[in-house]
């Protein structure tokens, strides 16, 4: 019995298990032809354009928003905080597509809910100061809506039909709706009777 085990074990020694040597050669050949990713199970990053767009959005959108939130008058700080949450949320969506990580879309969903609510809290707490010097946010509201559509629509096309598409549409709707509500709150809502006539 011992010699039978040794014979069987000896038959499997070159590849470790039956059939693994041939599989390894096949994987190497596929990798050489470019049909598989690199060794170790890692897949190459195919979302480079999405990652570049996320980087550009963070550099061109978040850096000025953070500078506006850190300096200047109060009206600019609150509007810049609202813009920063929008930019980070859109960057999460682009990073989710670029890295192939759906969990980033969940982060964007939470931020799309919490960001405008945070702006509304600031508006409520700083109402007296913002009433004296209200922010001008009409252009920012329009720009945020256009930017949201410009990011979400290509992501929806790339995602295709399914649950992920519905999630992207919900995040986009929350971003547009939240920014409209926050812009109305920042702008003081409807003009007062004394200002109309």
Automatic annotation (TrEMBL):
<feature type="transmembrane region" description="Helical">
    <location>
        <begin position="107"/>
        <end position="127"/>
    </location>
</feature>
<keyword id="KW-1133">Transmembrane helix</keyword>
<feature type="transmembrane region" description="Helical">
    <location>
        <begin position="166"/>
        <end position="186"/>
    </location>
</feature>
<feature type="transmembrane region" description="Helical">
    <location>
        <begin position="83"/>
        <end position="101"/>
    </location>
</feature>
<feature type="region of interest" description="Disordered">
    <location>
        <begin position="1"/>
        <end position="41"/>
    </location>
</feature>
<dbReference type="GO" id="GO:0015075">
    <property type="term" value="F:monoatomic ion transmembrane transporter activity"/>
</dbReference>
<feature type="compositionally biased region" description="Low complexity">
    <location>
        <begin position="1"/>
        <end position="12"/>
    </location>
</feature>
<keyword id="KW-0472">Membrane</keyword>
<dbReference type="InterPro" id="IPR007208">
    <property type="entry name" value="MrpF/PhaF-like"/>
</dbReference>
<keyword id="KW-0812">Transmembrane</keyword>
<dbReference type="GO" id="GO:0005886">
    <property type="term" value="C:plasma membrane"/>
</dbReference>
<keyword id="KW-1003">Cell membrane</keyword>
<dbReference type="Pfam" id="PF04066">
    <property type="entry name" value="MrpF_PhaF"/>
</dbReference>
<feature type="transmembrane region" description="Helical">
    <location>
        <begin position="139"/>
        <end position="160"/>
    </location>
</feature>
<protein>
    <recommendedName>
        <fullName>Multisubunit sodium/proton antiporter MrpF subunit</fullName>
    </recommendedName>
</protein>
<feature type="transmembrane region" description="Helical">
    <location>
        <begin position="50"/>
        <end position="71"/>
    </location>
</feature>
